[in-house]
Amino acid sequence: MTKPITDRPLKKAGRKPMEYDEAVALEVCERLSQGESLRAICEDPAMPSHQTVYRWAAVQPTFRTAYARAREAQMEGWADDIVEIADDATNDYIERIGKDGEVERVFDPEAVQRSKLRMDARKWLMSKLAGARFGDKLDVNLNATAEVAALSDEELERRTQARLVALGVDVAGPLLLALPGSTGTPPPVPVEPVAGGRNRRGGAI
Asked: Do 129 and 37 share a structural domain?
């Protein structure tokens, strides 16, 4: 049975788009830089909606630059928050009445986990919004490449053959260097015959 229309929840009416206002745009950026979330700012009736802020950032270069800088300042504030939360041990212990009626201080794991969640949420957002600065950096070690580039052809040949022998590969001759008295052209790749009288390259044998 269909519910009476009066029982249905009323849909919240959206705000009308706001024309670009430099003073309002500046206030949005200031409040962002002070750590306030964009959602909280947009819930203020005097402020534009999310969609309007994004539209302004798309079509107004000056606001787009100011908005990006405000976000950077906001993340600097989050970094300070992380340090403060980590250093604050106020709620790590709570007092309770023991079985003997005495007041005792006990560790509160729920409060510690809550603090960890607050820090992790900020770190995750920072890594996504500014990964180049706050994300995990991949340390690429180029020492091996530099070492190989510094080797002579003879030393590289010797090391390559030694590595192959260690892997159980039978090395019959030079791999990287030309044979003595040759023109320097690499030896042809041996063609392995297969069933049917044709080699792997499709030619008859």
From this structure: yes
Whether the per-residue pLDDT at 3 is higher than 60: the answer is no
In this prediction the pTM is 0.54
Residue ranges making up the domain that contains 78: 16-134
Smallest CA-to-CA distance from 52 within 76, 20, 84 is with 20
- Do 119 and 36 have their domain in common? yes
**Judgement on whether residues 41 and 112 belong to the same structural domain of the protein:** yes
Residue listed under structure tokens 């999310």: 50
CATH number at residue 24: 1.10.10.60
**Cα Rg, the chain, nearest whole Å:** 34
| pLDDT tens digit sequence for 122-167 | 999 888 888 778 877 655 555 555 566 677 878 887 888 787 777 7
How deeply is 20 buried, as exposed, middle or buried, from its count of CB atoms within 10 A (0-12, 13-18, 19+)?
A: middle
**Together in a domain, 149 and 51:** no
Stretch 173-196: mean pLDDT:
56
Per residue in 81-124, pLDDT tens? 999 999 998 888 888 888 888 888 888 999 999 999 999 999 99
Provide the total of helices (H) and of strands (E) in the chain, helices listed first: 8, 2
